[in-house]
Fold each of these.
Amino acid sequence: MAIPFISHRYIILLLIFLSCMQAYEQNNPTIVMIGSGYVGLVSGPGLAEIGNKVICADVDTHKIAMLEQGKLPIYEPGLEKVIAQNVAAEKLSFTADVGKAIEKANVVFIAVGTPMGEDGSADLSYVKAVAELIAQHITSYKVICTKSTVPVGTGAWIRSLLESHGVKPELFDIVSNPEFLREGSAVDDFLKPDRVVIGTETDKAREIMYNIYKPMFDAGAPYIFTTVPSSEMIKYASNGFLAVKISYINEIANLCDATGADVKTVSKAMGLDKRICPYFLNPGPGFGGSCFPKDSQALMYASEKYQVPLEVVKASLATNALQKKVPFKKLCALMHKDLQGKTIAILGLAYKGNTDDIRYSPSINVIKELLESGAQIKTFDPQAMENMKAIFSPYTHAITYCTDAYTACTGADAVMIMTEWNEFKILDLCKIASLVNNKILVDARNIIDIKELKKLGFAFDAIGRSCMCA
Ligand SMILES: NC(=O)c1ccc[n+]([C@@H]2O[C@H](COP(=O)([O-])OP(=O)(O)OC[C@H]3O[C@@H](n4cnc5c(N)ncnc54)[C@H](O)[C@@H]3O)[C@@H](O)[C@H]2O)c1
């Protein structure tokens, strides 16, 4: 067969074309976000919103089918709009074919769950499954970026995993880009972050990551480029610190209860000190959610592994376990420990307001204690009832899920406020007083007007406000 003659000019033009293509891809990469949960489903659309082309991938075919029909599998304020406008602009798409999405991508974000393992360590089995899938599908250079919260050393572990599957080192760079969004305000948190943290190993990966976030950086978002291990550590150090801060104010609230101080005034005055700042100083029923409990436990696991004491983090977990018992104890005191056969209205099931997430929610602890005491439960949450039903499915005889807060309170022997939903802050207390069987209320979020409760003749308690409740 005759080999066609290729002129030098043609080869030079081809090389110029290929290098232009490479530069174009570097500046306009196709991103795949693997894992479309609370983080992936905000980060993916968020990256599309700032101009990138993003494919959100998930093995959960039901989730992907919902997204393709324009429905959201989670509740997150503002997310529906961001997704709809970026799908319409053809910057965002969804797929359950994760392998194919990896093939198309220049940058692969890993945003799968890293739940708490039995020994307290972060369970990296979902991350491992994704890394193995990448190994099967990688044919051209990719940045592989962890957005999941992963222990220090995970980036290096992914690298060795890929290499052990025969992937050539020059085919990928490992990056760490932890996510700091808060459920309930996740879209805003992602688009207007306090900081973006990126850990890289090479200038090439750094440039690619810089270009992805450039519109955000140009708009003034602070950013820190660092090494992969430091980036991984920043996420844990931040969450551990916030958990400590919450446990600290919860302990101060309990001391306020015992001494006659009002924690609301105490925390307000503390927060005015710029060194302390006012955030995360609201006492409550203990921290829950998918992050603080498991990330603090993972820090404890690292503490043992590396033989480095983390006594402050350890104490915050112990304090939190005790704090989760406080609302129930307060209820028992108000009801003279007589809960057998009584009906308790639980307002709020989500671990915090504005989300349907119930992972490690303090409401779970309270419901378990009430069931053990022989109480009946009537409950309402604006978004989290379906998730809670799945956990307490064997107890349908003891738990009634209601259509609104007032229905839940009707005929109740006591009311417990467990989540700080805005609609609970403006409850018509006069109406509640007329609906309940007994005017007893525990406000585990300090959101109810104490003066009005007093005027209406309620026996009540809150967190760290006993002096006001007497
Ligand atoms: N939820 C938060 O507020 C928050 C905030 C910051 C960081 N994080 C971290 O982000 C990570 C994800 O958290 P989340 O709350 O979004 O979890 P999630 O459980 O809501 O979502 C994880 C998703 O990954 C999917 N998945 C699992 N294996 C997969 C695979 N092999 N391929 C494709 N998809 C797969 C699951 O189907 C699920 O949809 C965790 O490491 C978490 O600690 C969470």
Amino acid sequence: MSELSFKKHDILSEGDLDDAVHEVQLHALGKGMIPIAGIISRLLPGGRHEILGFGHNELADGVPGVHGETGAVKGMGRIQGGYADLIATSSLSPCPFCQCTLARHLGIKTVRILDDLNYRPDRSDYQKAGITPIVRSHQKIEQTFAKWVNDSRHETLWKRDIGISSGPTSAPRRFTTEELAVLMDRADRLAREGLAQGEIPIGALIVDDLGQVVGASSARIVATNDPSSVAAMAAWRAAGSRDDWGRHTLVLTHGPDPIAYSMFKVFGFGQLIVGSNRIYEGSTDEVRRLDRPVVVMDRGPQCDDLLKGWLRENSAERAQEYLGTAWR
Ligand SMILES: [Zn+2]
């Protein structure tokens, strides 16, 4: 985004920050992307903002799980000392996926929203998610998005982006015990590869209803300097864009973190398979409450000891990078 009029660590007034979000929104549009953009900043004494990261929706590039807000998180990279005091400014009201990423995973508490026209969710939900929403109407941002979203040529892409399947979807696969063992062996190998590369030992697979693995990854937060790249998200992004996540299963060596949970809540993933819940259970019960099949395997101490050892050797702050702020 070299042609933008600002760069990381520039210090802008709040009005200029909002115009900068519009600039990123137009930049996305110019690249054929959905015009939703975000900037993450730190509020300085005197009310000006230091720009820490910016980005936009990437679905038109075939990358699921990167909304405007997540694009800004990717652009920001990891920050020592945590994210609690940062401010996320978004061109559109953050959806529950982005709320989970910003608030429950990173711990960002303040979200500024620059569109009061196109998407007006129940904003008390933001408070339930631990977010204070501040809504300001930026007319150029509202007009840019309204024009895009009301154009019927964009309907399929938009539905995919917000997790609405445009066709019939089949049920996720009912795996045999043997199939489950093979899948979890593979996820476990990914966990170990991640560990060797300085990540938490958690592996993830996305498997379709035919039993084919369409995405696989360890966590990639260190490797890509992207705080949103937990194992489930990295595997999902590797799977590419589809609109039928209901026939897909997310396989995880350990319970789903808040970002992985939102893949069920927002994008309708069909089934969860977890290797072990003894060390980290995460949002397993929340996925059950969404009425999705959940299989918790008992992979024994080999799988547990790996994560236990990592947690013993790493700080709570490091663990929260992968498991969300609820991790003590
Ligand atoms: Zn979103």
